[in-house]
Structures are given as structure tokens and as C-alpha cells.
Amino acid sequence: MGDPVSLSAREIRSMFLRFFEERGHRCVPSASLIPDSDPTLLFTNAGMVPFKNVFVGSESRDFARATSSQKCMRVSGKHNDLENVGRTPRHHTFFEMLGNFSFGDYFKREAIEYAWELVTQVYGIDPARLVATVFREDDDAFDIWREGIGLPAEKVMRLDEDENFWSMGETGPCGPCSEIHVDFGVNPACKADVCDPSCDCGRWLEIWNLVFMQYDRDAAGATTPLPKPSIDTGAGLERLAAVLQGAPSNYDTDLFRGILERAQEISGVRRGTDPEKDVSLNVVADHARAVTFLIGDGVLPGNEGRGYVLRRILRRAARHGVLLGIEEPFLHDVADAVIAEMSVAYPELAERRDYITDRVRREEARFLETLSKGLIRLDEHIAKLAQKGQDVLTGEEVFRLYDTYGFPVDLTADILRGHGMSLDQEGFDAAMTVQRERARAAWKGSGDAKVEEIYARMANDLATSFLGYDRERVDSVVRALLVDGASREVATAGDVVEVIVDETPFYAESGGQVGDRGEIRTAAGRVDVEDTQRPSGDLVVHRGRIVEGEIRVGDPAELSIDAAARAGTVRNHSGTHLLHAALRQVVGTQAMQKGSLVGPDRLRFDFTHDSPLTRDEIDRIEDLVNEWIEANFTGSTREMPYADAIEAGAVAIFEEKYGDRVRVVSFGDASTELCGGTHAKATGQIGLLKIVSEGGIASGVRRIEALTGAGALRHIREEEETLRRAAALLKAAPAELPDRIAKLVEDRRAAEREIEGLRARERGAASSDLSAAAKEIAGVRVLAARAEGAQGKELRNMIDDLRGKLGSGVVLLAAEADGRVSLALGVTPDLTDRFRAGDLIREIVSLVGGKGGGRPDFAQGGGDDPTKIDAAFERFEALIAEG
Ligand code: ATP
Ligand code: MG
After folding, report:
1. Cβ-proximal residues to 847 (8 Å cutoff; 6+ apart), any chain
2. Least confident span in 392-396, 455-459, 801-805, 854-858
3. Would you say 714 and 692 are in contact if contact means Cβ atoms under 8 Å apart?
4. Among the four residues 282, 427, 459, 572, which has the most C-beta atoms within 10 Å?
């Protein structure tokens, strides 16, 4: 076939970007794998994702043409290629998508001409190897390929909507597309009647998809032309590299060479010896890239959402490592090779090298611990199934593997597939649902299994509607009462009750926002509600104490929340969203929410980040948030069915809390989040946000605490008051405090130095006096003396002085203070063979009623009988005399 040039992936990437730059496109750096603008999407899965809002017109840019090389992941939602990876030569979890975009500028003709020129003239692919596809009804595109480009009719193929029509969602921009495919020639094994690029026999390789966004689709499915048609294209870098390097698969390109080389070195397995081993090597290489880039963008392994996807990929790779005979954690080493290969284009990887490899190592080590146990169990099951002539593993067992051994379902499926077996997905899903219900029913504060059951049963018959997004007071009817975990018809003053009604303004704790407090009144009684929870289904439970009269099932009731507390919570919740957005702007999108707590008087936000925030970062975050508060962005909420959100690749983390609809909360351009909480009408309501602390709470996780509104003001006042009090003590102005304190500290240090000098001099004089009292016993210079007033360290210093003065000898000092005796005993080095200070002091100290010990040359002790000091001295001298 002989395409003349062989280009490196790096060249292919930069030639693409340069080609479009030269044609008036702004070259935009890759956005994070975690989509910023779209909380319903798990990962960036195409080059157009960062421009979504530009296409729909809700955002604008100061350029109308753009080009990028975008990091993409296709492991979930609508585009999920995970199962294919390692088995097809063309699909990756992580890949780079090259693209050019026109925002209402040029359209079909230029898009096709550019693509054709780049592919054939710049990259030099032989036109004879290429075919184009168009949407069956798109005569414009067909004509451009036929007449403009001059492709023969049989090389422009009309395909159906499922192949060549693209849409962003159920409604919104959509349009036909046109793809460029490389033809590898007839596959003799192909069974299709008509083998065109929609056939997956391997003959065709899609390299570039050109999307012509030209219609707007409404809810009824009708399309109207867009005023400004746009262009969105995507070409996979790995596939282009394979074609341009004449490589049989993406894995044979230079993009993967170093990575696969590392995997082969570690495993000792060479490619091309065993097809199954090749699959494992490919999976390891592919997943190592995904894992490296995900962690680089701030995702951490976890049990839900993105963290769970990362965990699954990493575990899948680790498992294939085991299949390759590797017994130790090794993926961090492969990740290192990924960083070496990719950091030219993505320098952030090199910056975070240690962080990334460290995370990979830890997660893999943790997994390997449980893996071996799970594998043994799974092997047993496989053997049993084989014996019985069956080939489907039950859902319960798959669930047990997942629950106990951390086996992701796709890993189990993967292993089973290797034995020609499969699993009962429905059974697994059912087991998962049961577990989820159980988790849901586990209401904090009750922990009692019986109560959980009652709630679960109640939730079958009862549901509470939440009306509190815009109301503080609601009239309803008491439907059920619980006292001490038992259902009651009536409850009376003093009882701690749980009250269930039809409709409520009380927000039940979820998504970090605490439950509302307030009051429930009936004609005969009043309940002080302290907390609101949702223990099961749509059942909302108001928990509190009856403070007046009695409450009866069936009573009409008036429910009102503590509006002041709620207002504080609202300020703090919206403040949390702004804080989250500002944090991502200031330190990067790898700072991801790990948890939050929003109450009436404070907010707490936990996020992933591996170093403390600097003062400057904290200031910038505060500044941004307060700018947004000042800008007074209106708060808006959009709801969409949960199913739709999932269909569009939505994040499933919040599913339990919000039932079958998800809610998107935004404040202008500042922040957009999936959230079911209560929020400010406009950001101005927050008043002021002040960060009061920042610190680490676990490895790689940090916590910010902040205050808003009056709470923030109060905090600032308290700090001011502290300053004022300190200033009053020093008779200085607050602004002078730092200098004055620095001066005080300095003065104090000087004074201490002076005191120490005086003491040393005094000690010197004292020990000279004392040394004169030394006597000779059995040829040894011996000194036993009182050192009045000396304490602790001073005693020790004196012993040192005296040892020096005596040159050779044994010294015992006794000091009395507050009815206690301190003894210190020193032996000069030449005598430690004969007298050991520790042994001597133990013998002596018992006389003064205490304990002691130490080293051969120095020992200390103490007791509480000062009258025995002289006796101690006698004993000491006697011991020396004995030798
Ligand atoms: P395919 O049908 O081969 O899965 P696609 O129709 O899903 O491709 P698009 O959504 O049009 O692909 O994406 C644009 C381009 O991105 C494709 O032409 C291809 O070059 C590349 N691409 C898509 N999915 C992957 C993947 N999983 N791995 C590597 N490259 C991909
Ligand atoms: Mg695809």
C-alpha cells in the first residue's frame, strides 16, 4: 500500500493543530477528563465537550474557529468501549481526539475540504485507500465529496441514521455526519451481504468523523434549521498513528511502544507468542494510560462515580498482570512509562509523577490482597459449573464476589469469558438493589434493624412530598407516628416522636445539607422538630419532642421550618457551590469534592489535593467567591428525568437521594452542579464568605471550613476583639502588635541568655567551693555535698563541672526542695570500670525513700525524706570504701 511517510504520533498531533491554526483556528489546550461545564457527564468523551455551551449558544468565545487535541475517556454511559479494549485493535478507554470546530463560521464544504487536504496532502495517505460515508439524506455532503473532492460514486457511501446522524441529546443541536474510513481490503471471512463501513468485519477503519450541526430538535422530535450551523469533528490520534506508521494495530504505534516495552520487561512475556497474553499486555498498556491520566486529573479510587470507574479499570489491569504471571504490584511502574511517553504533550503528568505512581501502587497493593482469595473462590465456582455442565454464574455469587472480595462485575465477567462462561447480570442487579435499599434504610440515630424494617414497610405505603424549595410553611395531615421505634396512634407531651406527614417544607438531610429544624402544630399539640431525615424511599421523618399536648394520627397539622436556620443553611449551601467552583479555578479541576457538610452556621468542604493550600491560593479563592457574591448571579435550577441524564452519560452518584429526577443548580457562569439542596435566589444573599480554616484530614484529602453572611461577620468581629485585647495588654495599637510581639520575644530571649550566664557563673563559684571539700577514700577522690537550691538540669551541669574540676573521682550532690530530695551522681570516665553511677545511686536512693537509675557515668534519683541526706552521704562513702 506504501504510504510514503511514517510520522510519529507527536508529529501527527502537532501537524494537525498547526494545519488548523494556519487556517484561522485558535489552538485550545486539552480540557480535563472531568467535564467542567457539564455535571451530567462522567468523563469528557469527545473533543466537543468543552465547547458544548458554545454550540448551544449559552456561552461565547472570542474566536469562531478552534482546534484541539482532547483527552477522552469512553468507559461509561452512551459511549462505553471498555469491553472492547484489548480485544479490538482500535478501541481504548483513554484516547486523544484531534478536532476542529466552527462555531457558526464555516460549514460542510470547508470541513470536508480541510479534512481531505490534511489526510491526503499533509499526512500523505493514498486517496485510493480512503472512502467517505454520508447520511443517507444528506445530498449536500454527497455532492461535495463527489464533485468538490472528486471521489468516485462507489467511494461515497450513504448510511442510515444510526451510523451517520449525530445528536447532543434528546433535544437540542443535531445533524448529519460524514466519516472518513481507511479500507484494508476485502476480508475473506466477512459474512455480510453488503460490506460497507457499517460492517465490523475489520475491513474498515474509521479515522475521522465530521459532524454537521445544522438542526435544533424540539421535544416532539421536530427539527428546525439552526440559524448558525456549526462544525464539530473528531479524529482518533491512535488510529491515525496506526495508519501512518503502517501498524497492524494501535498498540503497534510509537504511542504504546515504551509502555508495552515496560510491561514486557516486568512480566517477561513477549508480544506475539500467545494471543491471550497479547490481550493482557494490551489491556495493561491501555488501562495504565487511563489510570495515569485519571489520577493526574484528580480522580481517586473510590466506591462510586468516577472513583469507582478508576478502581474498576485499575483492578482489571492488575488482574491481567496476574494473568501475565506478575505477582507484585507493578502498574505504578507502567504508569511511569506512560508519564515518560506522554508528558511532552501533557506536562502536568511529569509534575505529578510521584503522586500518580504512589496512588497507583497503593490501590494495586490493596487489591492484590483480596484478589487471591476471591480468585480461589471464583475458580471453585467455575469448576463446579463445569462439572454440572452449566455456564452461567448466579447473580448472588457475582454479588458476593463484588461485596466481599472487591471484584468488579466486569472483572468477573472477563474471567468467566476466558472459560466460555457468563454471569447472571439481572440477578446481580437485583442483589445490588437489595443492598442499596438496606443502605438507604440505615438511618443514622436509629441503627435498630427493626426500625429500619418499619421504615421500609412504611415507605411502601407512604410518601412525603417536599415543598420546601419555595415554602417555609405547609398544612398537611399526620399519617404516622413512631415512639421508641414503634408505631403509635397517639403520642403525648415529653415523648420523643417521629412524625410522618403527606407534604412538608422540611428538607431531609442529604447531599451534605443538614435536615431542617422547626415546629409542627396540631389543634391539640406541638412538636419541636430537631432533625429531619429520609430513612427509606420517599419517606420523610420529622424527629423531635412533643412540648405541648398530644399528637394523633389523622390530625391536620401545620408545619413550619425554623426560617432563620434555613436561611443560614441556604447561604452556606450556595456558598459551598461557589467555593467548589473557585477552588477548581484556582488549584485546578483535580481538586474534587470528597464530601461536604452544610448547616445553618457553618460549612465544611472536603476535596482531593495533595498539598496544603497556600495563603495566596486561599486569598484568591475567597476573592473569587466574593466577586461572584457581589455580581449577584441569579440562582437557577433545572430538572431532568434521571433516566435521561443517565442516557446522556450522567453521573449516578446522586441517584439515591433524588429519586428518578436529577436537579441541576447554577449561578450564572460561576457554578453548575447536580444538587438536590436548597439554595439562594441570588448569590448576593450569601453576603460574604470567609474561609476560617484549611487542613489535611486524610492522605490526599483536605478540608476547608468557611462561614457566610452574619456568621462570617461575627467571626471577623471575634478575631478583632482578640486583637484588641492583646493590644490593650501591650498598650499598643492592633497594627503595632506584630512588631511589639517580635520585640518582646527578642527581649525575652536576651533575658534568658543573661540568666543562663549568671547561673553558670554562680555554679562555677559554687563548684569551686564544693570541690575543695573533696576527700580521698581508698585512693579515689570522693565528694558528697549539698547543692542548695539547684534543680534538675542545673544539678546535672554542676556534676559535669565538678567532674572536670576533680579530673578523676566520684561526686554525689543532694538538693532539697519542697520536702523532696534530688540526688545526682557522676563518675569520671577513668573510674566507670570500678564504679557504676547507676548501680551506686540505686543503693543510695533507697535511704531517702525513692527510686533512681542511670548510665555508668551519670545517674539521678529522688525521694521524699530529706532527713536522710546525711545517711545517704555516709552510705555513699562506705560504698566507695568497699570498692
Ligand atoms: P467506532 O464506531 O469505531 O467506535 P465512534 O463512531 O464511536 O467510533 P466517534 O464518536 O465518531 O467514534 O469519535 C470520533 C473519532 O474518535 C473516531 O473516528 C475515532 O477515530 C476515535 N475514537 C472513537 N472511539 C475511540 C476509542 N474507544 N478509542 C480510540 N479512538 C476512538
Ligand atoms: Mg464508538
Report:
1. 863, 865, 868, 871, 872, 875
2. 455-459
3. no
4. 572
**Chain-centroid distance, C-alpha 521:** 44
Tell me the CA–centroid distance for residue 284 and ligand 2, in Å.
21
Say yes or no to pLDDT of 317 above 70: yes
Q: State pTM to two decimals.
A: 0.57
CB-based contacts of 806: which residues, under 8 Å, 6+ apart? 771, 774, 781, 783, 828
Q: Is 235 in the pocket of ligand 1 (CB under 6 A)?
A: yes
Q: Is 206 in the pocket of ligand 1 (CB under 6 A)?
A: yes
Cα 308 from Cα 493, distance rounded (Å): 48
CA max distance for the chain: 122
Q: Among all ligands shown, which has an atom nearest to the Cα of 236?
A: 1
With 0-12 CB in 10 A as exposed, 13-18 as middle and 19+ as buried, what is 497? buried
| Ligand 1 binding pocket includes 399 (Cβ within 6 Å) | no
Adjacent-strand bridge partners of 215: 174, 225
H helix intervals, 389-482:
395-405, 409-417, 425-441, 449-461
Residue 209 CB–ligand 1 contact under 6 Å: yes
**Nearest by Cα to 394 from 367, 422, 418:** 422
Q: For 335-357, how does the pLDDT look when each residue is reduced to its tens digit (9 = 90+)?
A: 999 999 999 889 889 988 988 99
For residues 468 and 466, give the distance between their C-alpha atoms in angstroms, rounded to a whole number.
6
Query: HEC string of 71-121?
Result: EEECEECCEECHHHECCECCCCCEEEEEEEEECCCCCHHHHHHHHHHHHHH
Ligand 1 center from residue 24 Cα (angstroms): 26
> Model confidence at 208, in pLDDT bands (50, 70, 90)?
very high
Does the beta carbon of 236 sit less than 6 angstroms from any atom of ligand 1?
A: yes
- DSSP lists the bridge partners of residue 636 as 666
pLDDT of residue 438: 57
Amino acid at 313: I
Rounded to 5 degrees, what are φ and ψ at 564? -65, -45
pLDDT at 708: 97
Render pLDDT for 814-866 as a digit per residue (tens, 0 to 9): 988 888 889 999 999 999 888 999 989 998 988 888 888 888 899 999 888 88
- Whether pLDDT at 656 is above 60: no
pLDDT > 50? residue 441: no
**In this structure, which residue's CA is closest to atom 11 in ligand 1?**
209
Predicted confidence (pLDDT) at residue 482 exceeds the cutoff of 80: yes
The residue to which cell 490534511 is assigned: 118
Q: Is the CB–ligand 1 distance for residue 286 below 6 Å?
A: no
Tallying the residues shown for the chain, one arrives at 883
Phi, psi at 498, each rounded to 5°? -120, 125
Per 3-state DSSP, the chain is made up of helix, strand and coil in percentages (nearest 5) of: 45, 25, 30
Coil, strand, or helix at residue 415?
helix
Q: What is the pLDDT of residue 458?
A: 79
Instruction: State residue 250's pLDDT score.
Output: 96
User: In angstroms, rounded to a whole number, what is the distance separating the alpha carbons of residues 357 and 799?
Assistant: 55
3-state secondary structure 779-802: CEEEEEEECCCCCHHHHHHHHHHH
Answer whether residue 648 shows pLDDT above 90: no
Contact 462, 431 (CB under 8 A): no
Phi, psi of 473 (to 5 degrees): -140, 135
> Which residues fall within 8 angstroms of residue 647, CB to CB, at 6 or more apart?
77, 78, 169, 170
pLDDT at 655: 30
Strands 850-854 and 820-827: unpaired
328 burial (CB, 10 Å; 0-12 / 13-18 / 19+) is exposed
Quick one: pLDDT band at residue 790, thresholds 50, 70, 90?
A: confident
- C-beta 395 within 6 A of ligand 1: no
